[in-house]
Batch of 4 targets.
Target 1
Amino acid sequence: MNLPAGPVLALSGGVGGAKLCLGLDDLLPAGQLHIACNTADDFGHLGLTICPDIDTVLYTLGGVSNPHQGWGLDGESWQVLAALEQLGADSWFRLGDRDLATHLWRAGELARGASLSAVTAELGRRLEVQAAVYPMSDDPVRTVVHTAEGDLPFQHYFVREQCRPRVHGFSFAGLDAAVLQANLADLCASRTLAGVIICPSNPFVSIDPILQLDSFWQTLRESQVPVLAVAPIVAGQALKGPAAKMMAELNLPVTATGVAAHYAEHYPGLIGTFVVDHSDATLVPAIQKLGMEVEVTVTIMRERADKQALAAACLELLCR
Ligand code: FO1
């Protein structure tokens, strides 16, 4: 298998992104994989700063995540949440006892002035994660989901309301003032990046905040680094999460082509290759018309071997 010579950057949000990052981490030598995590899902809750997309990547690569949910820790107990419920506190966002240690520790470090990057790096060291994991920014960016029932912070839409409200748009509070995380900016400026992999994450609430931050997508395009994206929609379905429902409510075709068209419209010339599942092979011509090469492979990741196989296909593409 061909591996790129230089550093590889993955853009990740949610469970699907973490799965591909695990496959990439399995294949790449220590220090070669860099992961930019979406932080627009983050929110303040119970006085804590919850960073789901960072924690999902760290827990997954650290081998401690709950394998069924994809988020949170394996083997959790729920004593504190039950006690919080007794106190009348919010319990809709399920924080296990050991996961709470992460949030309490992070809240303390942030309160002492540590950056989110520094806290994330320390957590990665504690979990013996070999990839370099960064928040997309150390400045706060928060997704607001505009729905028929009003504007909702992302976790209120996703968890409290279980994605039920009809979506008609998104905005990212704080985006204009936020600065790209320093290591990511250095990585781009170094011109050593072998490639960028946009993981099969939700294009609207996971990938858009990262690419739209601080002219990041324009910086990537100008650097001429090869960029590929893996479709998060397979045969008209999202493998996990609300991407398909959002696309339908936004009147976009709920297909891999619909995702490619979203990326082509908002980030023209950025993505060189779009990776789709065999079940979407008939969509190749339509995606090529958007100016992208198309790679057809297995993009559904159930077992570890599937994650490694998709990672290998992506890395091979970056070597072409
Ligand atoms: N997702 C849920 O659907 N229900 C939950 O109660 C929940 C709790 C939770 C706690 C910590 C954490 O890191 C993630 C958690 N998630 C939960 C997942 C999270 O909402 C999503 O994975 C991301 O925000 C989507 O990108």
Target 2
Amino acid sequence: MKKIKIESKFIVYDSIEELTIPVQKLLKKAAEAREKAYAPYSQFLVGAALELENGVIILGNNQENASYPSGLCAERTAIYYAGAEFPNQKILRMAIVAGSTKNPTTKPIPPCGACRQALSEYELKQSNPLELYFMGTSGEIASSKSVENILPWVFDKTVL
Ligand code: THU
């Protein structure tokens, strides 16, 4: 037998001013996208903004549905649109701002498992790391240098 240890590392920033200007801009875009989320059932609004290599910024937010599982998370709304409209552009980074309208959310909110899987597909496709920055509606910002860092040992095309 053997044991395998997998380690994830994150950087947590105290405030947005500690980040580079492009990342600050992307987080602001994600916060704007969050304001337009359609989340009448959970009141948990999420906005995502991703920056492509050509400078284009793609926005997404969660879209809920009366048939709950038919809804879609912000991250996947954004990345599927990027895949549809700019299939050959590398995605440099994604910013995610999440929080309930009922309770303030001041801790970084990481992407759900299904979104990690979806983001991983595009990171593997482009053979380049996709940086992630995520936060609540205020407070600390966490960053991950890649999707792999938050979803190691992924289910990918090599196993099919
Ligand atoms: N949600 C996202 O948009 N992204 C995530 O990574 C986690 C959850 C959405 C789905 C649903 O509309 C609401 O947040 C509550 O789960």
Target 3
Amino acid sequence: MAELVTIVLASSNEGKLAELRSLLAELPVQLVTLKDLLGEHPTLPEDGNTFEANAVQKARAAYQLTGLPALADDSGLEVTGLQGRPGVRSARFSHERATDAENNAALLRELEAVDDEGRVARFRCVLALVVPGVEQPLTVEGCVSGSIARDSRGGGGFGYDPLFVVDGFEGRAMAELGDAEKNQVSHRGQAARAMKPLIAQLLSNQLDEAERIAG
Ligand code: IMP
């Protein structure tokens, strides 16, 4: 059997961890957290203006702390009627240490008087992988379109999933999809599927080839 390669995930978000473990399950990879390795999750720098800048910052920091290949996910919700907010501030929309419930309540409040057009939204995810010996982080992106409901539904997923009605799913919210269905359609699922061949290349030590695929 192939040896497992350890990759550290630069996130303390249990929802992201569970989804990425499932999405990368076919690879001979063991995804561990900084908490697993260091006993606590350090606060990582995340002050960029784009998902890509933040994902790269977090992956670089996790690599520097551990010396291991490091994967980071920066993701969030962009709402048309809020001119793309909450965007990179999705986790901190209501306040700095907000819970998902507080963020969802804040989103519903801000959209109270907003019509269907303004409720059009998308989730975006950038995954960044920093690998020892490769200077440029590898980045990939995924995106899923939908709209913001007027009330919460479903118990699956995390974050804004109870409010995000996925295009093409008969009015169902992301939180009403099963785990496999969410992975199939989600921004993170798309990004992970783009990242898989890059990780596979890295595992076979063909680093140059992986950089070439990433462009
Ligand atoms: P980050 O840790 O700065 O990348 O923040 C990501 C935030 O975006 C999460 O805390 C959620 O609020 C939101 N988010 C990202 N991905 C998802 C998802 O798959 N479902 C629901 N909310 C998400």
Target 4
Amino acid sequence: MNTKHDRKPGGKRGWATQWTRAGLIALGAAVLSSCGQGQFIFLGDQAASYNREIWNLSLWAIGLSIIIFVGVSGMLFYTVQKFREDRNTAAPQQFHGNNKLEAWLIGIPIILVLGLSVLSVRSLARLNPVSQETLGIEALGAQFWWNFSYPASTVQGGSVVTNGNEMVMPAGQKVAITTTSRDVIHGFWAPNLGGQRASIPTVKKVWELDTQRPGVYQGNCSQLCGASHANMRFKVIALPPERFAAYNEAARAYVAPTPAPGSAEERGYNLFMQGKADTGAVACASCHRVQGTPAGGVSGPDLSFFGTRRTLGAGMWEAMTPRHWEETEVAQSAKTEKQYSPAQALHEWIKNSPRVKPGSIMPSYDGSTYFVDGKPIKGGVLTDDEIDDVAAYLRSLRLPEEADYWRGIPVHGTNTTAGGSQ
Ligand code: CUA
């Protein structure tokens, strides 16, 4: 709302404008199911052609409903008023059946339902086709995270560009999302882009989405899928086309940096790749992929660009930026009982992920028992210093500056950008 137009000095607003504005704000508040830091959910976002189509369809349904409501209640009031009983009224005329009236009462609803059906089918016919040239993004849902991969963006070694829990797409052009699931039924839903699709194991569903407005948008799993269903979020970062192209190119060419000898990152790298056999600590690499390294695990989210990402634990924590690294209050969006700074959150996450995220099947690294498919497994042990070494390595996994997709991209509804550069 803070456009220049609204702030024009000396402009007197009429009461109608003010009421319209108040109404819009109230409506906005009603549809904002969550508006924490960096979260903006708006079903009626007209920047997406999917939402525009649904909006136009809804106008017909809403308009007809209003006409029917006014018509029926008008006739009801008229009848009650006109045929009100009083002491002198004789018994009303008795009759049975009025074929003409009944024909109208059946005919009008049939016409209305048929009309709405035709409009709905027309909208489906516009929304469902997927063109071949569209940029394809595969969204894989799993308990309780997302992987977004780009089949056309091949990298050396035969795999493709993949990012965990943050979906980068170009603004101003359609992208074809293919959604599926690793385990149970999830739901891919980024309301500002429109629609939602069930992510079903063994089934691939494709549909096209777009947004005209670059920005950061909230995505959620929309299908109850287990203990951390509410912690299965993702971000959509829509970039101007030239920035997306830069991102895509850098992501394809990306090779994870080699840590300097003797650095914390190098110690972290070794733990990440090999674990620690004498304490039973499992190697991170067995479940996570890091592009350009031997780590090729696929049962956990891709960590290639972990240091560029601003979210942790599939959106449980946000603002994981260097600028905020030690601040406590910025990591509160997940509404967990404990408030962590991003640095603490990452530490706790590595140490015992199932404790901070119910249902997580990531191994614990503090020796406590964790569960996979209901089976208890004794976790290995890393010391706090070793955990911080792993964290240091993870944070070093960064795309080059020009491909940092968070840089300067507005988070809509919060009047902020996604924070400074890395
Ligand atoms: Cu996945 Cu709810």
